[in-house]
Amino acid sequence: MKIYIDIVIITNTIITLICIETAARMINTKLSNKRLFLSSFIGGLTSLVIAVPANEYSTAVLITIIKILSYPMIALIAFKFKSIAKLIRNTLILFAENLAYMGIVLVLWEFSDTKLIYIRNYTVYFNISVMQITIAVVATYAALTVIEIIRKAAKSSDNYNAVYTCGNYKLCVRAVADTGNKLCDCFTRTPVVIIYCDDLYYYYGLDSPATLSSGKFRLLPFETINGGGLIPVTYSGELTIIDDNYSYSDLKCCIGIKRSCGKRSRAIFNPRILN
User: Fold this and answer.
1) How many CB atoms lie within 10 A of CB 118?
2) Is the pLDDT of residue 193 over 80?
3) Is pTM beyond 0.70 here?
4) Are 165 and 146 in contact (CB under 8 A)?
């Protein structure tokens, strides 16, 4: 059987993309298109080991090592490094997905007696044309788009919670979607989620001028229906928004902190950052 390099790379890039998207949904996180396509392309490139003759034991071991190391590399590119535990988790999820995929393909290969599938060096090759791949990708993308539109139309959620973590500190407060919160960092244009919470305010010692001048916070002018002024903003920590359907969004944002003045703590975010 002739093996065409472009078919190998394209098909395995698509399979890797599907696995990464599935993993992202399993851990309830969103990926940037740049990271998604770069990590998928890396997965496609690693499929080139199919062309290496593994006649010797040392060559087979090297190919195995390359395939095993490709999973943490793909996970790191796709999901970024947040912690060793999360990197291991993401790697194991991708490995399990690829293991399941290989198992399904092996079953089809064994029982269908098809000449369209070829497996070598942990890599699957589909003996199809680029046109067939294009049609399949377009059809799959169209179906997924329709499903996503239906899912979003059927999903109605006005109840949110915000979970803010920084080191050992963790805070869970009520979150409110407000299109009027258009506050962004003036240098990076990163959206700012405002958290009104006395506990968080005093945790960072924002009542002390020394904290504000330490360089860990940036003062930005802001204005809401409750008033305006300057708000300390930080990039530290991670923020997750959880809706009443138990969907999660890990947000790329800054955190602005204000006192709640004895009132119920809450987070104010622009719903556009969930998209």
Assistant:
1) 16
2) yes
3) no
4) no
